[in-house]
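CO-FOLDING WORKSHEET

Operator: S.A.
Ligand of interest: guanosine-5'-triphosphate
Run index: 345
Mode: holo prediction, single chain
Checklist:
[x] sequence pasted
[x] SMILES validated
[ ] output reviewed
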Amino acid sequence: MRASKIPATIVTGFLGAGKTSLIRHLLNESRGRRIALVINEFGDLGVDRDLLLGCGIEGCGEDDVIELANGCICCTVADDFLPTMRRLLARAEPPDHIVIETSGLALPKPLVKAFTWPEVRTRVTVDGVVAVVDAEAVAAGRFATDPAALEAARRADLNLDHESPLEELFEEQILCADMVVLNKLDRVDAAARARAEAAIAEHARPAVKTVAARFGAVDPAVLLGLGAGAEDDLASRPSHHDAEGGEHDHDDFESFVVELDAVAEPEHLLDRIRTVARAHDILRIKGFAAVDGRPLRHAVQAVGERVQGYYDRPWQPHERRATRLVVIGQRGLDRPAIEAGLRGS
Ligand SMILES: Nc1nc2c(ncn2[C@@H]2O[C@H](COP(=O)(O)OP(=O)(O)OP(=O)(O)O)[C@@H](O)[C@H]2O)c(=O)[nH]1
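OUTPUT RECEIVED:
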């Protein structure tokens, strides 16, 4: 008999809120604790796993960072997540803690539910659901539905009973949280911070704490060890999708990968991304660029119109040096125009 269950922390939060940054900080500060990471991304490039492995954190090896292959974790729990957990638990040396990064479009509740499966429940408990929030985006009303637009959409579709997909995701993620991390504090003034806090308070369950952070830097002592036992507490975490058995689809969103040649100047690529993001209401672009004559890979990150790039690590001998970017947005993106814009053609 095992003395205690392995704690698992679920990290949720919208695209680009800072989940990977938070996890990188957590791993850096883990002080010898064996943490296994399960990562799920929307889009066909495993950027997050690559970024985490690229930062060379001690004790964070290839085997400890597991990427789920199929679609969005909340809809593929049985196909992908459970076999992964089974394999993790069968290891000779199981981890001390499991951290799961959901895709920015995932609903956390179906994932929490997966921990009630008998073979998982006896070995693992959900220590806490942590929702990472982009303070700047929330304060700017990114997740609030324009009431006039909602009314118009309802008139067009009588079955529509809810707000925009972005607002719904925000609500679902906060409703399920045991702790909220209000991230990107460097990007907001006091008034904007207060607006973001008010938006969170509208949906957070009673007694859920909000901690403020920059670049996801939260002390692991605060983040881990919440002892929530969330799998035994599903009823207190309402979801818009409860009536559908937790099912939801991602038809509201789409993603595609754009492959480009090596670039002469990363700044030129970042400028093109800025222009494209401004013109096309893109939610997220991320990936890696190959730069002519440089042995290092250039990581590229765009959240809305905010674009960032930095050299992260040398290209490995087995890797093809190409520029590959995943583009994510709400359905209806003008793919040819976006590709042309990124190419600069
Ligand atoms: N200014 C600022 N930028 C931040 C902060 N936290 C994260 N970022 C940047 O925001 C971008 C997205 O951060 P990630 O940590 O990759 O976000 P994510 O939630 O993992 O993104 P997805 O996995 O794509 O959903 C990166 O360019 C980060 O450097 C912050 O506190 N302040």
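REVIEW:
Residues 3 and 267 are 54 Å apart (CA to CA).
The longest strand covers residues 124-134.
[x] output reviewed
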